[in-house]
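A common beginner's mistake is to predict each chain separately and then try to dock the pieces by hand. The better habit, illustrated here, is to supply every component at once so that their relative placement is modeled jointly.
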Amino acid sequence: MSQHSLKTWLQSRSGHWQRLNELLSVQKDKRSQPLDEVLEIVQESRALARDVSLAQSVLPNSKTTHSLEALFTRSDDVIYRKPQAFWYEFKKLIVEEVPQVMADLHNTFFATASLFILMAIAGWLLVWNYPEMVSLFASTTMVDYVQSGKLWTDDLLNVMPSSVLSVSIMTNNIVVSLFAFVLGAFYGIGTLYIIGMNGFMLGGVFAFTAHYDLDERLFNFVIAHGVVELTVICLAGAAGIRLGEAIIRPGDRSRVAAFQAAVNQAGKLLVVVSLFLVGAGIIEGYVSPNDSYPLESRVVIGVCYGLLLWTVLTGSIWKFGKSK
Amino acid sequence: MDDQITIQSADATELSLAIAGAGSRSYAFLLDWHIRFVLASAWVLIVYLTLKLSNGTELDLFNNSAWTTVTWIPALVIYFLYHPVLEVFMHGRTPGKRMAGVRIVDLNGRTPSIGALVIRNVFRLVDSLPSLYMVGFTVCLFSKNAVRIGDMAAGTLLIKEQRATASDLDQVSLIALNTDYAPEHLELVNSLLSRWKDMDTSKRLALAEKILERMHITLPAQDAANVYSNSIYEKLVAVQQGEKT
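With all components supplied together, the output reads:
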């Protein structure tokens, strides 16, 4: 390109670049932007794409080219940014995507739940035969409570109000579930550890309380919130194992691509189950430690909440609504 | 020279983006950490002082009362949701990232989706293991595009943000309107003037002399050092503004 042509090009285009920069700078609330200005941004951006290509060839590594590239990156981002339709996306996630993920994870979920149950049996057997082994995973306070014929949950509401209890429990449960999921990044081993340990501890604690005839009272405490909590931990574990599988057996894709796809797919499940953990936390804070709820009502709450979780995850709740 | 990633826009325009390495990432993280720590602490302090000044109650922050909930929960929300919330609302930026001049983009160079931003933050649980982000930092040092596990999971990366300011584009206009000199030479003048204050005096003078000689512009008379330096600077500005020299 001759000097003259270069000058002519710069002269004819620089005003357009200034104008585009101006339009992008005042673009605060995209919904109230006048239509003609939006169309102008699109037109100027398309023209700028050609200018960037030309600048890259005639003025490589120049400040002009870098400025034009930066301006183009900004306009391209504004034009192609996905609309943030939160509620639409959320509905699509719950009604369409999660049931698909669930159908896909069905077998992995049952394998994870089986591991959890097996480890619970192992924990039960170990502590039933060697009660002192409970100190491997139970705190001294917990052991002292049980040995004095009480459950550590008996004084929960005296120690903290239900609201604080609910928040701390739900936070803890969500963190454990997220850990069960993300630790799948270590070839699934981290997830297997979390699932195995949780199953082992549950079985062990039940065996220890059984030694002091407190297992029924523990069941009484656990049943209202435990159905959903334990299901969710197994679901998060299944999602984590899917991550590990993607890294071990990526198929035709690269490991990173397979990992990304698995996170994208299984992660959707975590959004929904985390919401159910909020409900489980509220039950555990308000219902489980409150003696005025009889066993029957606790069982009804636990089973119904568990059924709600299952029907939402499998999508059958939406089909039920349609068939009516 | 920074590592670059080449992306292609929908118009098939190829663009190179400078990847932010472990240093820039850590710098941005430290800035953000201080900001969220100060904000969370400020909340605790406000509740404490409000209670003390309004009814003279000295709040025990650890006694598990209802006030403890009011004090700690918002503070923890500020601390732990700082990154995901701000990254969504600031389109891949946080105040710390903005100060460090970096930004999160997807593999097409655009603002990542809300889902991707949430995923990269959930994976902080792994990246922060065993402490002080050791896993994340190590992975970042050795991975392609200098990303941590959270970015790999979400398909995102951190780039050094390029900004076209109005003054940058004004300079381009000056080059366009300046009919006396070649655009390549004017580019050099602009570049030198933009770095003038940061450069060593002897080096900037040597560079300026070379550029002016190449443009066939007569150099000012060799005077006292500071006078000569000022004359050279004024000459460069005159060239940039398109004034006859």
